[in-house]
Fold this sequence. Notes:
Largest sheet of chain A: 7 strands, parallel
Number of helices of chain A: 13
Number of strands of chain A: 7
Shape of chain A: elongated
Oligomer: homodimer
Structural class of chain A: alpha/beta
Amino acid sequence: MAGTDASKRAETGGGPAIVLVRPQLGENIGFAARAMLNCGLTDLRLIAPRDGWPNDKARAASAGGDRVIQSARVYAETAEAVADLNLVYATTARPRGMAADVVSPREAAAGLHRAVDAGQAAGVLFGPERSGLTNDDIALADAIMTVPLNPGFSSIQLGHAVMILGYEWFQVGEEAAPTEPPSETLAEGKHRPVAKADLVGFFEHLERELDACGFLHPPEMRPTITRNLRTLFQRASLTDREVRTLRGVVAGLTSHRNRSDKE
Amino acid sequence: MAGTDASKRAETGGGPAIVLVRPQLGENIGFAARAMLNCGLTDLRLIAPRDGWPNDKARAASAGGDRVIQSARVYAETAEAVADLNLVYATTARPRGMAADVVSPREAAAGLHRAVDAGQAAGVLFGPERSGLTNDDIALADAIMTVPLNPGFSSIQLGHAVMILGYEWFQVGEEAAPTEPPSETLAEGKHRPVAKADLVGFFEHLERELDACGFLHPPEMRPTITRNLRTLFQRASLTDREVRTLRGVVAGLTSHRNRSDKE
């Protein structure tokens, strides 16, 4: 199979195949497709969908994920659907009595990335809504993936299971990315952190007005109160514009006094 | 507020409240409830659900999560639903132009655990299916939670968004067996984050006075100015005591006007 790595990778959109084994409800196929596209996954494989294929309910429930629905491939048997894959995880609600490795979605996502980065094709099996995967399905997988959840209510919606795996897949890509680009909002003028001089200018303005109205009495309390106020405003990491707004607030609130003092 | 920690925690099932703001489809409320219970969360709050409440479709879609559906509480306004919460995240598809912190679901889950471990009440806002949260909803939150996803297709199903947050919440519990010691400063009364009801009380006091002095004119600018002010104070993660101080500041600065008005 040498030389097929690139085409395999293109075929799988660079990510693992999502293999739904004997899914029952069209809606759930659609929810899974939407979750896949949310996470940049496009290779959907269906094994013997109960209500046939194509399925209008699946398309509607994908809410714009038509691209995934349209390119889905249908197989009769699980073995056929995973034939070209090098690494396969099988999702179960809880570890079975099988002598297979059991991994979390986060560990599975890491394993899938390692495989794909090495030019391999990988996929994850999800069983039918009611019954889950059979032991024969699981026997085709390299390891079992189990989502750690409330043991008292661990029956998870098919689309949710796909979402969790896809989410973890996508997060690995996010974390590996070479650091975030500088935040544009912070770089923009209106979100520029205020210069400390302007911040202190606001503090002094506020404290002058608080002195004038008697709020900072008695004098022995003044240092504590002003320090507490400065601290809380510091903690907000104010922008230039916000400090100008706050100065306007103080001027507005005291305008009546300052006007009548001059009269 | 001493002695209410245990009851608060019992009320919230030990986990954050999931607050669905103006949800449209009953099915999506059901999917969210099921995802919550999968992750051990039980405090569901609904703000003005479009199709009324109770809703049979929500119950059916919860697939056994009736307990969450039945105990859901309905509110008219977002501010009312978060009134008792100390820490609130607002979910958006992508960072808005607002000057608020933006965290990932994993960071939000860590923050929620720290808050709950310190005896605080916490919650996460999720907006309506089509439009997402309004800026006024977001202004009630301490920070924005954004799920890093495929930028070409980031519209995520409501239930999936709840599942991701719940999943991350549950994973922290799974991993963090030893746990950090609860922060003493946060546990102390004077450093307790203010309950949202008291914070909103301060906002309304400030805005009333700013209306009175004409700072919020012209009327078309009022929503932007008040939202910007609310956002900057939210960002400071104010304590109970600080909010009392700020109310004193506003009362002090306006005392002359309010006195002379009465004369």
